[in-house]
Design brief:
single chain, 456 residues, alpha/beta, four-stranded mixed sheet, three-stranded mixed sheet, 9 strands, globular
Length: 456
């Protein structure tokens, strides 16, 4: 009888356990290509409805039809994890994908950033997100599509603005500044205060309300949910639901090079050691592996623009070769992409991979444009801060309720796309229901203030 890819799943799992991988159970499911595109765009099998996901879906379809992208699998970490495989995959594709998924499952089960975020949100994220979607459908029935979409416009435009260094369920700011009680510096005042309760109370300083926010607040979803002057409870819940899902997605974004490299390292190793795979399927799977981890380059560039599979796979092979698998597992548990690339992308590895920027000259020779390893590392991870979004924080709420946002352009090294920024400010103003200002710089680094006022 002809064997299907499912018959190889338990044998690959057994081999992976033998080699030291450990993970929460994974549910494998083959789904149509159209559904694969949907869950890749929405980020989850069922998620809150919004027009922006539809726009992304159309873009994904165009890319796929033009041959620029193909989805073999989509994995959602959790307990259990969920792995969706394209039904158009062949036997060899799915054998490789199954091994790849086991590498992902091992990574998400043991990496500390994944563990911390999953424990705060939910290990049952697929079901949790579906619950959010159902609640929003009820909000639409109760308040109308337009009202709900207006809140989702604002929340999803800020979905990158969370602070995973804070707890998911954090307390509101203290209402008052800490009291500074002046010392009783003479015997008479001390005696007077001890005899008269009213006098003692008079010696206490007046309580001063703390400013809101007490410091620049970069978790804009949390801040608006808690401090928008007229936000209704159902609107607040939408903001907090988007924030929860952003907490879930952050480790996926912040460990992409590590995670894809780890999964690629293990699918290659499992294929090499799986003597039960038919020779023809093995050869096809190895070819697929080569396609997955090949570098992508053209013109003047950092030669990976960036293929995280190739970069991560090469770095993990280097770590294992020079330090052993036990050290590699410790790094996998403790690091994110920032520390991983900075600590393990050496000048030698970068040179071997052709990562330094270069340019072809008319005489046919190659000119190296930059060979600064520190600059190279930062170019690879610099766009990963804050989900790759500009650094914007809530800095002040004025007496009239105006919200003042400040862009840290010095760290970002540039101004903002003013048209996009104005659109986001309009979204935010509709839920803040007071004026909203954003302080940034223009393309020439001159101070620029954008504003969204209350509609008449």
């Amino acid at each position: 009888m002809r064997q299907t890819w499912r018959s190889y799943v338990p044998r690959l799992e057994e081999l992976a356990h033998t080699l030291g991988l450990n993970w929460s159970p994974v549910i494998f499911e083959a789904v149509p290509d159209s559904f694969m595109s949907e869950i890749a765009i929405y980020g989850l099998p069922v998620r809150m409805p919004h027009w922006s996901f539809g726009a992304r879906y159309i873009y994904q379809l165009v890319q796929r039809h033009m041959g620029y992208s193909r989805l073999f699998e989509v994995v959602f970490p959790g307990n259990p994890g969920h792995a969706y495989l394209a039904s158009s995959n062949g036997l060899a594709d799915n054998i490789l994908v199954t091994a790849h998924v086991l590498g992902h499952a091992d990574f998400s089960n043991n990496n500390m950033l994944f563990r911390r975020c999953q424990e705060q949100v939910s290990e049952h994220i697929v079901e949790h997100a579906a619950s959010h979607a159902r609640q929003i459908e009820r909000d639409i029935e109760a308040h109308g599509t337009g009202a709900v979409e207006q809140v989702l416009d604002a929340a999803l435009s800020l979905e990158q603005y969370v602070d995973v260094d804070q707890a998911l369920r954090r307390e509101r700011y203290a209402e008052y500044l800490p009291a500074k009680v002046p010392p009783i510096d003479d015997a008479f005042r001390a005696r007077y205060a001890s005899l008269d309760a009213g006098a003692a109370a008079a010696l206490q300083p007046r309580r001063i309300r703390a400013p809101v926010p007490p410091h620049p607040e970069r978790d804009l979803l949390w801040f608006i949910a808690n401090y928008a002057p007229e936000l209704e409870s159902w609107e607040r819940d939408i903001f907090l639901a988007v924030r929860e899902e952003s907490f879930y997605f952050y480790p996926v974004f912040a460990t992409q090079i590590m995670n894809e490299g780890w999964a690629s390292y293990w699918h290659a190793r499992l294929l090499r050691e799986a003597d039960f795979i038919p020779q023809a399927a093995y050869l096809d799977a190895i070819k697929c592996h080569s396609d997955v981890v090949r570098p992508i380059a053209a013109g003047e560039q950092v030669a990976l623009s960036v293929n995280p599979y190739h970069l991560g796979f090469t770095l993990w092979e280097s770590v294992v070769e020079h330090s052993g698998i036990d050290v590699a597992r410790r790094i996998m548990c403790e690091d994110d992409d920032f520390s991983f690339v900075r600590n393990h992308l050496t000048r030698e590895v970068a040179a071997d991979m052709g990562l330094f920027r270069f340019q072809s000259q008319d005489n046919g020779q190659i000119k190296v444009i930059a060979e600064d390893i520190d600059a190279l590392r930062e170019s690879l991870v610099g766009g990963k801060y804050n989900f790759g979004a500009p650094r914007v924080a809530a800095a002040e709420v004025r007496a009239d309720g105006t919200l003042v946002l400040v862009h840290d352009h010095q760290i970002d090294g540039s101004g903002l796309d003013s048209e996009r920024a104005r659109m986001v400010l309009q979204y935010v103003q509709r839920v803040w229901r007071r004026p909203v200002l954003l302080k940034t710089v223009d393309e020439s680094s001159r101070p620029l203030e954008l504003a969204a006022a209350v509609s008449a």
